[in-house]
Amino acid sequence: MEPAPALRADARHNRARILEAAREAFATRGLDVPMAAIARRAGVGVATLYRRFPSRETLITEVFGDELAACASVVDEALADPDPWRGFCSAIEKVCAMQVADLGFTEAFLTAFPDAIDYERTRVRAERGFAEVVRRAKAAGRLRADFDLADLTLLLKANCGVAAGAREAAEAGSRRLVAYLLQSFRAEHAAPLPPAPPLTLALLHERR
């Protein structure tokens, strides 16, 4: 009976190493990094990795669960702000900062994982919450009336390009990009725009 605790401790240690390695790999290389590369980074065999995490989706949702919860909290805070425009701006700024800090976060957020029920509930709550943040900012007359949720996708895709640079430059570039775009989102003196592209978040949920 004595060896059992040691085996359990070893299993916990391997699991923690795999999660840390996956978090680092996803943050720098995106979600398509090979599972074998994650196993090597963690110093474990591929069989051990799959024993702890039977699928890539299982690993991804475990790694990004906390980040997704933080994103949902950002949206909740925006909804609780009595100033709809300030709440909208704050949500955009914080989510873009999270994106710069972790390159894998955006793809994880935009990907549907139907088997991860709790993860999906949190993601859907964040999406619906942001839609309400947008509605409130428009109703207050502060957000331009033609702002579309597709514009959020455009913003995240643009910010993702900025985030791919060196960390210090990426952080500064992201802040400036977001500041530019938030000014363009203001309702005051908003010039007409071309039609919004078919870039709803739902279209990005299927992993390619």
From TrEMBL:
PROSITE patterns: HTH_TETR_2. Residues 34-53 bind DNA. SUPFAM superfamilies: Homeodomain-like (SSF46689), Tetracyclin repressor-like, C-terminal domain (SSF48498). The keyword Nucleotide-binding does not apply. Pfam families: TetR_C_43, TetR_N. Coiled coil: none annotated. Signal peptide: none annotated. Residues 12-71 form the HTH tetR-type domain. Keywords: DNA-binding, Transcription, Transcription regulation. This is AcrR family transcriptional regulator. The lineage of its organism: Bacteria, Bacillati, Actinomycetota, Actinomycetes, Streptosporangiales.
